[in-house]
Design goal:
The chain is of the alpha/beta class and about 425 residues long. Helices cover about 50% and strands about 10% of the residues. Its EC number is 4.1.99.17.
Length: about 425
Amino acid sequence: MSYTTQMDAARKGILTKEMKAVAEKENFDPQELMRLVAEGKVAIPANKRHTCLEPNGIGSMLKTKINVNLGTSRDCSDLDMELKKVNDAVAMGAESIMDLSSFGDTGKFRRKLTSECPAIIGTVPIYDAVVYYHKPLKEITSREWIDIVKMHAEDGVDFMTIHIGINKNTADRFKEAKRLTNIVSRGGSIIFAWMEMTGLENPFFEHFDEILEICQEYDITLSLGDACRPGCIADASDISQIEELITLGELTQKAWNKNVQVIIEGPGHMPLDQIAANMKIQQTLCKGAPFYVLGPLVTDIAPGYDHITAAIGGAIAAASGASFLCYVTPAEHLRLPDLDDVKEGIIASRIAAHAADIAKGIRGASDWDQKMSEARKRLDWEKMFDLSIDPEKARRYRATGKPEKEDTCSMCGNFCAVKNMNRILEGEIVSIYDE
């Protein structure tokens, strides 16, 4: 039997090689996974032209996945440096790379990613259109916006963020509602400005059926972008955010009717006490489609530390149903992240994802922690390093504070509770002071 997309295959009872790979990786029943893909509750982004892809599934019943945003800008256009970040991100466990390049030979970089990188590759065509056509925003035509989507599909990207929820209707409501930080989504602000200047409907919304045909042809997963995500906690859960989410829910069903996989993008900045409720609202309005969140950042006051504010929100969001975390680095709101920023952002997001997976009871998630605890009980330092989420940093920290005795650390020394409990329970004498 032939099929167009992973969803189409699942609905026809075809267990694709991508489904088999995901089921094995997740220790998940293949038939159950196929059912979830058929229902849209799990997405497996896998463009037919991305032949080096190592597939991953995205859904709240699976391990929480991490996306890393990279790409060139006018001020930082070193493609080799961005490729170094890509390789480091994959080595550190990121399942997805999103190319947000907005300067230089973006096509060359994108095609290099899809020909060499095993991670899921995502893009935002609206950024690339501005670079590709190299003309004033107002002069880009509706046809040209859609042609960029086709071009990215042909280049092999697995998912695309399409800012489709900000149509004429939601844009009018946004202007009426007033916000503290307006639209902070880069793509959302671009399409809003284009609509205001031309008076035309959002071309992605107007030509959604054509976009779905492109997605069917190449098996593209649509990431329905949140143009109205809150950019500060004061704007969280406002009418613009929720109304756009309602629109995205309607478009999700339309995509599913054509067997196109969908991911829903979400906030943004959001107070702790609103996160769980927002996850429930999304699950309800979008019928369980995978939720992809940027953070959420739980406070606005921590530039330089927003990988921490995002990890706090990300852990709560994923524990409450989000399935895909977009990393946030210490450079957020300040500059393009460097290699160290990328590492810090990935580690923070992976910690958040793993903590959420434990809370959700994801199969095997707590096994890692069990092994670490057993190594700590034995004071087996080498095993602890091997099990660390960042072994290099763990080794470096111990090496820079060498203890007098190898079976302790320089914090506690002979006062080490683990060492002393092991000894006393084995019937030994514990002196501590004169040892």
